[in-house]
Amino acid sequence: MQLSELPGYGKVTLALFPFRWYETGRWLIRALKYVSPSDVTWMPHYIEENGHAKGHAFDTYEEARAFSKEFNAQIADRAASLGIDEVLRTSLTLKAEKEITVQERLADEEFVMLTEALRRNASAARPHRSELILPTDLEILRDMLFEQLQEAPYLQIVFFHRYRVALARSGEFDWSLRLNPTKKCAVHCSREKIARGFGLSGTTHWGKTKVQIRAELLPRANKLLQLASVQKLLIEAKARGQRVVVIAGFVFWYEESGTPGWTVKTVSGDSESKSGETIWHEGTIISKNHGRIVVLPYIKENGQKVQGHTKNSSHESKALPRHPDEYVEVPFEVLQGDLMIELFGGLPYE
To answer: What's the burial of 67, exposed, middle or buried (CB within 10 Å: 0-12/13-18/19+)?
Structure first.
């Protein structure tokens, strides 16, 4: 099929971003297309090869993200080429930029989780190649299985993209149980590398799993406050008037009531929901309680701006309220998620 025959071919591409192509283990570029001044949508991005259209994919996330980042530097210029009035153009540019910010934050957060999952199991025993038990007709997978278990020895399910085969562990070394190698299975096997590293399963509800992982990472994140490099970063942020700094799912929060100082909270999944995918960076957070979770300000699909706030999760007791005289309205700043990986790397492993 030619490029001109594909759905959305005539629509302007405002931005690009890599999404995991679970069935292949690669990263597939998707395009944020202009539909109307109030509507953008993600669609497949294609390139032409030998006169035919093909999906634009990369072997690594780093390569794909670098490509997208270069393209996304011109979002405002592409919006300007649409010939819409200035107010609509500004709104559209903001919406596109925030869509990219959300995807970056989600990807950064999961990379932080994967890094910590592997770190937690760095000293776990690895099987010998000869100990692995596979179906007799899948002996060709022995080396690939061995390599995956060398990286993540805790895995219970594994997907082999090249052969479109999935296996499950049924004993310490027994991998003779086959799974149906569907797309859903590939998704579960990918998430397994993160979830199982925290003693959870890659097959359970992903949103709930990530909530549990964030809670487990919070004590480790709190230790970052002891690092001189982090203290310097937060002092500089406060000098710029920022009292909330967001990095890959964690919030460094400066509390002035009680004993003044920095604490660590987590970002709520609410800001990643369908109704709030566009983070409103110009907004602020109004804290009426001492909740441990921060909902970042966001813009709904209908354009309504929702103020940021603090809360506890639904299964916890209600957050301790502040006195009305102590309500605080604070600006926030979002930093690159890979910074959290670097900061975690600075902590000695427990």
So the answer is: middle
